[in-house]
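New to this. Look over this protein:
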Amino acid sequence: MAKAVADATSDNQGGYASNGSPISGFSHMHDSGTGGASSLGNFPIFVYPGCANDDIDGCVFPKTKRSVQAVDGSVSARPGYFTIDLESGIRAEITAANRTALYQFTFFGNATGNATVDAPLSPLFIIDLTDLPDTRQNGSASVDPTTGRMTGNGTFLPSFGTGSYTLHFCADFLQSTPIRDTGVFVNTRAGNESKSIVVGKDNNSPPLPAGTFTRFNEVENGSTITVRVGLSFKSVSQACNNAETEIPDFSFSKTLATAEAEWRDKLSALSIDTTGFEDTSLQTIFWSGAYRAMLSPQDYTGENYLWESDEPYYDSWYCIWDSFRSIHSFITLVDPHSQTLMIRSLIDIYRHEGWLPDCRMSLCKGWTQGGSNADVVLADAYLKNITQDVDWNTGYEALVKDAEDEPPVWDYEGRGGLSSWKKYGYIPADDFDPYGVGLFTRSISRTVEYAYNDFCVAEVAKGLGKQGDFEKYMERSENWKNLYNPDQTSDVKGTDTGFTGFLQPKYLNGTWGYQDPTLCSSVNSFDSCYLNSGGHETYEGSPWLYTFFAPHDMANLITTLGGPDTFVSRLDYLHESGILYVGDEQAFLTIFQYHYAGRPGKSAERVHYYVPSQFNTSTAGIPGNDDSGAMGSFVALAMLGIFPNPGQNVYFITAPFFPSVSITNRLSGNTATIKTVNFDTAYKNIYVQSAKLNGEEYTKSYLTHSFFLEGGTLELTLGDKESTTWGTGDGDVPPSGL
């Protein structure tokens, strides 16, 4: 829950950004790698070495004015640790426990910018009743004049959802220097007479700065002061208890060592052979991706004030529309216990909220971007033996509710247009829906996502022996075809693409509407298909892209698009024309769909284009934003050579980026190893020529999850030309349907 870092003033969705923008504070909770508005960043600490003229009002309190530049080259980060030097003469080092952030501030001088302040080195710590997106609705804080302890709470708004949440903090100091004074600040001024402050919602934008401060007597150059900040959604007392329990002795070195040990343990499920590499950048790309893929969802068990439950509670499902495509498949492989807890949490959210979430953050319901894609996460887990203490009967009940019942407001749960979905087999662009309200856009992308959601319900129905449901949802899963217009052509800036047949909007009366097949792509109005009333019939992608989205029915899709050769040519055009943007998660699957046409070597080519051209170690080395680890999980799985078709028991085989890779199942202890013959670090031999699974010839271009549950060895012989035999036969391509 505690993810502490310095907060930059721009592109700060995760707090810090390597963009040269100044630092406005150090806050304790963040969602990592999200798009759109910033989230969390509540109750930032800001530190002054001293105030001008040694006057408390010589310090600047509003965060819009107090920011300080970082010292060039001072930033360093690794799992469990972050450090930065500020031009004001402060070094901040940061680590964290589960619900507690720990800061170690070292003071090297008293300056603002490049000018030395004419004042003693008398450090001032303020805690601001604010958050990164400036959504404070109310807040209160107090300071103990004897100990300097600062406590408080505030109510804030989620960054991509509805409702509000309340958070509490408890900050303590470890220092040898006596406290000079304590008090509160409001707007631009501070005073030491009052020791508490209460603020309500005001008309200022951003809300009026307010909070508490603790100031210390003069310290020597190089002195260190440690700040411990406990956090809780439930109460100040629980925030203090979290801090006192998790970091009782304020030891930075012990807390850091514990955090690093936790990360080593989590990542120890993975092993890569780096023999022969002089350049370590690809190793950095891989391990960074694996690390980022494990940051969310976040374990808030014991901090949910909305209901009482003995089940785990995970939050920061931000958002499942992004994470279902690779994050949860990755976690299932490397940390199945955590994935089990997450599935139990999803089902418990359904028990108490009435619906599975498609997005959720800070105990609030988040906006639904397309289908009910928690269905995919549950189905994926069900197929991959996530069973310990999971109530799959209730889980299935939740899936069926998504498929059958329309909520009154389907902007943040369930599906909209279900009456038309059942009656017509698609979501009409001019839908008449008197049963619920929501954003009446995205008729194309919602249709194809609903189809896949129903397929995932069918998979679980089959496993539970519910034959009637299985047949019903399998039939509905074919509805993607109902928006395929075989006569629709496409051009890019006046030049015919040469391909005919694309998904198009359709009206209630069965006639076709029109959306340019390239609209909302990198070649045509990229930013025009977001979640707003002016959006179009696809979401964050074009009809060109969504025409490929039938993950469960690829054989029929390939036939519909003209057969394997034409399908491959069309995929080539998607990737080579500039239409596709790999920074949107829908792109992931298209990289590997060549497998279904018997051309796994083409998938390998695409992977090696995007890694490292789009995924690399530069500050622009994540396309778009990380979407809570979606990009990280993509690159980690792709480099392992086992990208999944999420919601199905399928992993596409491509050559790993290392001579051998291994994954150890943390529950069974079994290890699955993929090793190569003829591997070369120049990546000329990227094509699988033949394979052996546990010593036996293996011609299929995919694996199932049993390989990772039971362990074993897959040996891939590589070459510099695409094989015309391996993975090409009708029985060797990944399955379509059930």
User: Anything to note?
Assistant: The CA atoms of residues 294 and 629 lie 7 Å apart. The chain is about 25% helix and 25% strand. The mean pLDDT is 96.
